[in-house]
């Protein structure tokens, strides 16, 4: 005598077996879409350098890539123009290098979308400062 599995139980098992892989594919697709959207997000970035140093050299990453811009003998307070970056994996960086005879202090700041996301002060006068941020 064969034992028969009730049809409702068989249907439930079939739905569970098929639904789990479908749900995993949905999550994978959702994550991929979120990553794609994040890589297309645009951000407004402003770099600032302030302090009592006399005309430090300022260097900053322009577009979240490898291209850097050097500003020799910057007058403080110094501020970059508004830069537009795209994506969430860019590296933002600004630094101020003081001249050897300069004993002033420097502070760097990175502003993204109107919010301060990174700031540092030189530990002692006569030193340089470097700010870096990766969203």
Q: How large is the share of residues in beta strands?
A: 35-45%
Major sheet characteristics = 5 strands, antiparallel
Q: List unreliable stretches of 5+ residues.
A: none
Content-based structural category = alpha+beta
What helical percentage do the residues reach? 25-40%
Radius of gyration: 27 Å
Would you count the extended β strands for me?
Answer: 9
Shape: rod-shaped
From N to C, what is the helix and strand string? HEEEEEEEEE
Explain what this protein looks like in three dimensions:
This protein is an alpha+beta fold and 135 residues long. It has one helix at residues 7-40, and strands at residues 42-51, 57-61, 68-71, 78-79, 83-86, 92-97, 106-112, 115-121, 129-133. The strands form two sheets. Strands 1, 4, 5, 7 and 8 form a five-stranded antiparallel sheet that branches. The mean pLDDT is 77.
Write a concise keyword list for the protein shown above.
five-stranded antiparallel β-sheet, 135 residues, alpha+beta, 25% helix, 9 strands
List the helices and strands and how they pair.
Blueprint: H1 7-40, E1 42-51, E2 57-61, E3 68-71, E4 78-79, E5 83-86, E6 92-97, E7 106-112, E8 115-121, E9 129-133
Antiparallel strand pairs: 1-4, 1-5, 1-7, 2-3, 2-6, 6-9, 7-8
Concise summary:
With 135 residues, this protein is α+β, with helices and mostly antiparallel strands. The chain has one helix at 7-40, and strands spanning 42-51, 57-61, 68-71, 78-79, 83-86, 92-97, 106-112, 115-121, 129-133.
């Amino acid at each position: 005598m064969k034992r028969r599995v009730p049809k409702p139980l068989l249907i439930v098992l079939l739905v569970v077996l098929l639904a789990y892989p479908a749900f995993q594919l949905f999550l994978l697709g959702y994550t991929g879409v979120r990553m794609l959207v994040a890589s297309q997000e645009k951000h407004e970035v402003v770099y600032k350098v302030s302090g009592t140093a006399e005309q430090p050299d300022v260097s900053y990453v322009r577009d979240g890539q490898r291209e850097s811009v050097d500003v020799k003998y910057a007058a403080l307070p110094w501020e970059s123009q508004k830069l537009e970056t795209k994506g969430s994996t860019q590296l933002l960086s600004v630094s101020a290098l003081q001249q050897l005879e300069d004993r002033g202090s420097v502070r760097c700041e990175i502003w993204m979308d109107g919010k301060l996301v990174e700031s540092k002060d030189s530990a002692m006068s006569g030193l340089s400062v470097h700010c870096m941020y990766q969203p």
